[in-house]
Structures are given as structure tokens and as C-alpha cells.
Amino acid sequence: MKKYTNVFVLLMVVISTGLLLSFATVQDKKDGGPWNVPEKYKTMQNAHNGDEGLVKIGKMHYIKHCKSCHGGDGLGDGPKAASMKTKMNSFKSAEFQSQKDGVIYYQSFIGRDEMPNFESKIPDDEDRWAVVNYLRTLK
After folding, report:
1. Could you name the CATH architecture of 34-136?
2. What is d(CA 107, CA 101) in angstroms, rounded to the nearest whole number?
């Protein structure tokens, strides 16, 4: 009987430690600093705004290139997000959605820090705007 008690205690310690570490990991992530978006992008207009056909293409690119970090619903909870040092904010947040399209374009394709540059992976400008349009649907 004592053998089973020791196993049970050990199991509870392992589970408790795992839960505490998973909680600590989330809190240890730092907030990203402010984006230094060039004026060119702040005033950039989305010529494809409202193009419903492009939203489907944008979703396809999002699934291929963004979902692993940003998650299926854009909450910043993709499988790779746990290994990042910087906390990812939700695309559903009012703060994100209030940004101009050109700013989102810059953030999505130029990147910074742990966010890679995607200009060569999505070279077509229309496809890039398709991703921006898809991100707008994640409200």
C-alpha cells in the first residue's frame, strides 16, 4: 500500500510542477515594443478593401504562414507561440483592429524581432492585401 502512496505523491508533484511551469511561462513573455512604422505604410491605401474573393485567398496564406504562431483564430496561441520570448497579441483586439490597413500590411510582411519578414514568401502585393483583408475578419 505504501508503494502506491509514494507513486501517487510523486504523480501529484509532477502534475503540480507542470501546471505551475505552464502558468509561469505565459507570464514570462515580454510585451513587444512599439512598432516603428514608416510614414509610407501609415498612409498606404488598401486598393482591395472589401474584396470578398481575396478574403479566401488571405485565409489560405494565413493558414500556411501565420497560423502556427498566431493560432487558428488569431489569438496568438498557435503551437509555436509557446516557444516565443515575446507575447503575441490578439488580432481580435480593438487595439489591433483600429490600426490602418497599411500599418497592418507593414507589420504582417516586414516583421521585426521574432516576427520574420514574409516579403519573399508572399511576393504578390494582391496576396499580401488578401491577408490584411482576412485579418480584418477576425473581429
Report:
1. Orthogonal Bundle (1.10)
2. 10
Per-residue model confidence as pLDDT tens digits over 123-139: 999 999 999 999 999 98
- Predicted model pTM: 0.78
| Angle (deg, nearest 10), helices 52-65 and 125-136 | 90
Domain boundaries, the chain: 1-30, 34-136
CA distance 19 to 135: 32
The 10 Å CB-count burial string (b at 16+, else e) for 73-100 is ebbbebeebeebebebebbeeeebeebe
CB 109, CB 119: distance < 8 Å: yes
